[in-house]
Structures are given as C-alpha cells and as structure tokens.
Amino acid sequence: MDSTKAGPVNELPVGLDEASEEEYASQSKLLQEFTSISSIDKAWTFKSDNGIVSQAMFSISQPNLLANKKRKYMLSTSISKESNNNVNFQWAPFPVEMTGVSLIVPSPSGSKLLLIRNPENESPSQFEIWSPSQLEKEFQIPQSVHGSVYADGWFEGISWNSDESLIAYVAEEPSPCKPSFDYQGYKKGATKDKECSSWKGQGDWEEEWGECYAGKRQPALFVINLNSGKVHAVKGIVESLSVGQVVWAPPVEGTDQYLVFVGWSADPRKLGIKYCYNRPCALYAVKVPPYKSEAAESDLKSMEELTLVNLTQSISSAFFPRFSPDGKFLVFLSAKASVDSGAHSATDSLYRIDWPTDGKLCSSTKIMDVIPIVNCAEDGHLPGLYCSSRLSKPWLSDGCTMILSSYWHSCQVTLSVNVLSGKVLRISPADSDFSWDVLTLDGDNVIAVCSSPIDVPQIKYGCLEKASNSTGWRWLNVSSPIFRCSEKVMSLLSSHQFSIMQIPVQDVSDCLTKGAAKPFEAIFVSSKKNDAPDPLIVVLHGGPHSVSLSSFSKSLAFLSSIGYSLLIVNYRGSLGFGEEALQSLPGKVGSQDVNDVLTAIDHVIEKGLANPSKITVLGGSHGGFLTTHLIGQAPDKFVAAAARNPACNLSSMVGITDIPDWCYVEAYGSHGKSIFTEAPTAEHLTHFYNKSPISHISKVKAPTMFLLGAQDLRVPVSNGLQYARALKERGVETKVILFPHDIHGIERPQSDFESFLNIGVWFKKYCK
C-alpha cells in the first residue's frame, strides 16, 4: 500500500479519548460565550459647562483568548436627569480600544487626562496629556530615570497637584549598576549602558515583595513637571522604605508643599505582600520643593538630608489616604487587626487626622477613630469594615461623607460614612442579596454595579433624596451595552436560582468567643426545576481570610450552566463576619474549616437539595488546602475533586513560599507570629505536617485534578506536584495540568479558560 496516499490521522490531544473530546468541544463553546462577557474596571464622571448634563467614561476589559491578554477599551456616555426623576444615559455608539495603556488618571478639574503606557523590554515609559480635543503633550521617560510605573492597585499611586502643573507617581527605581567584565576580566567604572565588548554580572541579590512582584525591586516616588517634562526623584526617603499610594497634601499659601504616601519597611526582609495586609505600614509626609524652575535643582540638593514625618506612629497600619475636599482632614484605612494578630487579612478600621492649617506637621498628630474594629456585631448591624479598594474621589458635597464598598457577610454593600460623627449607613438596598460595587460618584449620586451568581452585572444609579427629617437613596436601573451576552447564556442563567444559607455551627461548646459561635454562610445556586437535584460542586475560597461574594462569576456561572448545583461556603475565618469569627480559625486550619464545610454539605443533603452520591469539591490556594483535606478526611463523601495551586504540605511549603509567616500563624494561631523563624525546628515541621492534607493522603479515593502555575511564589508548584505524585503512587486517578507562565492566581485568559473547561469535563466524567 502506498503510504503517501493515506489520509491525515486525527490524533487526540493527550488526556482525551473520543468521548471526552465531544464533551470538551461542547463545553468549550459554551465557556467561550461566558468568557466574552465584559467587565468594568473603573469609571469617571465630568461635569459639563451647563452643570446639568454630566459626562462619564467607563474603562472596560474583555479577555482576548487568542492574544492571551486582556483587551481594554473605553466607552463614554452623557448623563442627564429627566423631569420624571429618572436618569438617561446616552452611550457613545462604539467603544475605543486603549491598546498598551496601563493607567488613566483625569486631572482634578477634569480638563486634562493622563495616559501612561508602560514599557516593554527596555523601552521608555510614555506619559501623554490629553485635552478634550487632542494630545497636548507627550513625554518619554527612559529606564535610566525609572522603570515601569506601578499599576498594581496597591503600591500604585498617581496624584495631580492643585494647579495641574505637577504629577507625583510611584515607579520602579532604576536598576543599580552591575559589575562589568570584558576579555581582560573585571572592568572598572561600571555603567548601566550595554556595550558589545563586555558583559554584565549579576551583582548582589535583592529581596522582592513576592507573588506578583517578580522582577520588581523597589517602588520609589517621582514628580514630573508638565511644563518642562523634567522628572525628579523625590529626596529624603530612606532606602529601606518601599513607597506607594501617593497624594498631594492641600496647598497652604506661604508654606512648604508636602506629599503624603504609604511606606512599607523592608527590615528585616520583604515578605510576600499581595493579599497580605499584615505587613506593617505607615503614612509619611515629605516636604518637596516647587519643581517649577531651574532653581529647584539647588532646592533639591539642599533638601537631601530631610527627615520624613511619620504621621501614624501610634498605629501599626495605615493606607489609602484621602484628603477631605476642604483639605482640613486626612482619612485613611488601617489593617491594624491584621498586623497585630498576624492574620494575612482581617477586619479594617477607619481613622481621621486633622490636617494643620498652618502647614506645620508633627509626628504626634492625634489619630481619631471613625469606624473601629468590630469584634461581634448584633444581627442587622455593620459586621465590620472590609474594603479592598477606595475611590479616588469618595466625597459627597457636604465634604464629610464618603462613599465606599465593603463586605457584609456574603455580600458586598455600599456604605456612606460621616467621618466627623462616625455614622455609617448601608445605602445599597438592605433587602438585596446581590452584591453592589461603587464605580464613581456623579455629584451627590452614586454609579454602581450590582450582580448575583445568576445575574450579569447591571449599572445602577443611586440618587440621594432629602426629605424634611431624613435622607434616603433611590436606585435606578441604567440600560447599558457593556454586559450584553448571548441569548443562550441569558436563558441558562434565568433557569437558575440562588439563596444565602445560614449554617449553624456544629459544636458551639468548642467556641471561645460569641462571634465564633454564630452561624456562618453558604451561597447555594441551583436549577429551578423541581425533580431530582443536580450533582453538587462544593466551591471553597482561598486565604483563608477572604470571602466568596454573591456577585457574578463567569467561571462559576459556566459550571452551574452545565448541570451543577453550587455550594459556595464562607466557613468561619472568612472576611465580612466580624473579627471574633475570623480569629477563631488561625491555629485550627485543617479541622475547624474542614468541619464547617462538611456541616454545610450535610445541611443541603438534609434539605434534599443534594444527592450524597454526586458531590465534587473545587478550591484554590487555601481552598485547595481544604479540598485535599476533605478528600482525605471524608474519603467517601466526594466522587471527584479539583485543586488550583493547593497548599498540600505546610512542612515543605514553609521553606519555599514568599509568606512563611502565614504557615506559622495559620498552624499555631496568633502565637505563631512570635515564634516565626526562617529556620523551623523539627517540632515546627512535625506540627506543620500534621496540619497538612498530606498527612491524610493514605485515605484518599476521589479522582483528583491539579491545576498548577509554574511561576507561583505563594504555593510553589512542587507542593502540588508532590501531593499529585503521592496520589498516583497509591493508585488514585490523578490528572495534572501545568501552566508554565502562570503565577498563583492562574488568571491569564487562556489558562483560566483551560482550567475551568477541564474542571467541567473532569466532574462530568464522574457525575454521570
């Protein structure tokens, strides 16, 4: 037979057979429809000349699977109030793609727009200043001045001064000189420039801030003069401080100008900072010269020995500084509860400093409570403050009321806070189980998005209505093209329902505090059909001190749409339920959290909402820790499992993670903070092992899939691989998908897509 005439052989991808390939094809088509739904990242409003109509811009992102990046674009609208108390949004006919744009920051007056394009490779950073009609100025800032401008949401800080001639910002400090070598050996007089006849050595290794900050050494403070284009590194900041979140202090005529920023000390070392609010930080003020003339150069030299003013010496954490519109006080958030206990995240508190009108600062400034740490709230009252972000302009027109988003049990809500009286109001509807997130303010009105596990996000417009003896909020629906999705997706979502369940604690006698004995919550998503329950996926968040919100998740909506009920458990230790409930978990991981999840599963089984023979479990990070614990401690409960970058063996993780202190605090409780060491004892390692899922591995039966990011610094890939290999060794069916370029979150569009596609196919295989 002539082999050259044979047809092409259809070779199946590794890990697929003909049956699973059909499932793969079917599910991938639906997942693409969910993946294509857009998200709003930020929004801004601008008052028009007539003061009646306002303009708004929405920064939107959408996964670009082919390019494996997020596609970012801008959509504009005009907002007008109608005589019938409704509001009308007139959207631009098409969005505009913002290729290569890292940051967008309007000026205080709204008459200018700053765009920053961060460099690729060794190109310069690009600053563009736009007017309403054209590009006005463009500056190229070479790597010898500074590296990329921080756009990470944490160190990130960009602030225009009041007359819009200067911009302060945070960027990567320029790389230090490295030793040079040529054919004669070491070359004296090293430079940063590349030369073809020599090569660079590595020089001394420097600490980084861990996960998400690989290749980043030191965030530093810079000011650019928009008239001259000259960039100045701000002097007087000690080398051991990493800086971020900079804002200009209000100008006081005849006095020096100050910048206020957050500083994190690198002494004794930098530990992972992403999702870790337990890193001590303070607000600092530094005096700066005018930066407006050549004479400023001499001013700079004379100020090099300036000492910083630490504005928050009496408190262990201070961040997200915001000045009141009149400049009379400074408000900031604190993660004091987290820093003091060692828990990576905990209940926030809000504080106020009166800003001196004479411009004379001192480090003994009195710090006043606005919202203290809430240990255990009465039912219906604020459970505590839990803010993951803040608006750049959060103020209503009274100058003392700020609007912010916070977690309230399993929901995100919108709050108004009077920072003088401390009065807090929940202004998003109290009877709503949806989650609400503030985007921006339009005068005294609020633009927000609300969503649920079965409802795509919708823009809402909140109107402050003042009556003779009270004020209230009325929320209007806004028609928008942003979240449009296919009819198939809408039909699938409309065939589902969700509720937030109160789950009683199983053994109250073990609880040391009132808050620890209160019920925890689980979000239950199911089909509206009344026949036999669908197979169940138990979904577990990471942290452990984070929370699964009742908001829309494309990946979870996809899983519910292919025939699963979801039980999304906010076990004790989650954010949003008060400090006592949160602090009940450290020292009890692998037992209390595991028992809470099993209690929640038994709760839905007893109610007839789940088939006990068709239960699967899915979690990432600490959720993966719980997933692998559950299949070992309750081996007959689960028919399949999937774990994303799971912490499976704390005794090996402690020596290689960017947060070794996490292992101590979660395994030992707050006492772990005081015994933390870079050289664990044999007793410590035994304790970590006994707290770990790997100590139960001999009992595991459930087929388990692992999704691992090879660049993960939080739970390095060896942790999941060790556990997966040990399962294989014991004959348990195991599947591993390794994403070579992903970090802890596995969030790159192609990786996220392939992860949840494989989870769907894996669970279908064992839930027939």
UniProtKB/TrEMBL annotation:
GO cellular component assignments: cytoplasm
Keyword flag Hydrolase: yes
GO molecular function, one term: omega peptidase activity
PROSITE patterns: PRO_ENDOPEP_SER
Catalytic activity reported: Cleavage of an N-acetyl or N-formyl amino acid from the N-terminus of a polypeptide
Domain Acylamino-acid-releasing enzyme N-terminal, residue spans: 11-489
Pfam family, one: Peptidase_S9
Signal peptide residue numbers: none
Positions of the Peptidase S9 prolyl oligopeptidase catalytic domain: 551-767
Keywords: Cytoplasm, Hydrolase
Record's subcellular location: Cytoplasm
Ligase among keywords: no
Annotated organism of origin: Durio zibethinus
Subunit structure: Homotetramer.
Lineage of the species this protein comes from: Eukaryota, Viridiplantae, Streptophyta, Embryophyta, Tracheophyta
Identification of the protein by name: acylaminoacyl-peptidase
SUPFAM superfamilies: alpha/beta-Hydrolases, DPP6 N-terminal domain-like
